[in-house]
Amino acid sequence: xxxxxxxxxxxxxxxxxxxxxxxxxxxxxxxxxxxxxxxxxxxxxxxxxxxxxxxxxxxxxxxxxxxxxxxxxxxxxxxxxxxxxxxxxxxxxxxxxxxxxxxxxxxxxxxxxxxxxxxxxxxxxxxxxxxxxxxxxxxxxxxxxxxxxxxxxxxxxxxxxxxxxxxxxxxxxxxxxxxxxxxxxxxxxxxxxxxxxxxxxxxxxxxxxxxxxxxxxxxxxxxxxxxxxxxxxxxxxxxxxxxxxxxxxxxxxxxxxxxxxxxxxxxxxxxxxxxxxxxxxxxxxxxxxxxxxxxxxxxxxxxxxxxxxxxxxxxxxxxxxxxxxxxxxxxxxxxxxxxxxxxxxxxxxxxxxxxxxxxxxxxxxxxxxxxxxxx
Length: 375
Hints:
Largest sheet: 6 strands, mixed
Helix content: 25-40%
Strand content: 15-25%
CATH architecture of the largest domain: 3-Layer(aba) Sandwich
CATH class of the largest domain: Alpha Beta
Shape: elongated
Radius of gyration: 24 Å
Number of strands: 13
């Protein structure tokens, strides 16, 4: 808690670092055009201008009139909601050799990365070894090779599993494998409604096998596999499918599955430095999969601070902190509560979320006590 800090200023616009506009932070332009109507939050501080001489809104005190009449009671680091990531890893015979070793190294580096705090991961290989279970049975792929656990702590178990495996298996039965992974992710998302869930498909092939038909569906049809991803992305709660295509993958198939799964396009790994490129690709997935949802601070949930005195402040990698306005309808950039009556989370609007993820050095805080800035 930082009590008595001179942070609140009431004016008629945004005080935003000029350089941040180049990062396509759309909310900046919207707020500048509309002006920010914000009155009475800080008494004598109203009417203050930024150091540039232009009207602006900032929760950062700059001295002068009204500086002793701070309204901010708490300045809290926003706590992102956890993500459960189910990694579906291709072990078909086409992965044999340097491709397998490079993919192992890339995934190993990813799961060890301390930047993955907030992500839990499970690992499942496919195809599975033949047994008495029908080859098309999606539920057979619901049991992970490595159980879900927080990263980077679970990285050791995942690396051990990778070392114990080797490419073995003809065909790439994406249809039952992805179906099982999505069922596992959906089950987890329903059991943990305050956490996000996603599936990451890592492959170098196209859907192949395990039979001519699975429940009347052609399992080798990219559209059939994409249909599974689309159904999960449209479910409640939603589960998105990410695709990382290793060298040799059919790009059009990978893109069809990723787009249907709500993630626009596959991330393709070029030949050459497969391990490094794969690790980089997984980093892109991490940046995208982490949701722009943050737990409602307990001071608000318990009623100490009202819903009308919550502000979101972003500090870009380069430049000064600025306030993002509340926008219930998310018509532009901004933020909203997940529920207008009984909220449990702060949710960034899509444009703001995209801009925040584009800046790896950006930080977000929730400031309590000042009247909420509204777009």
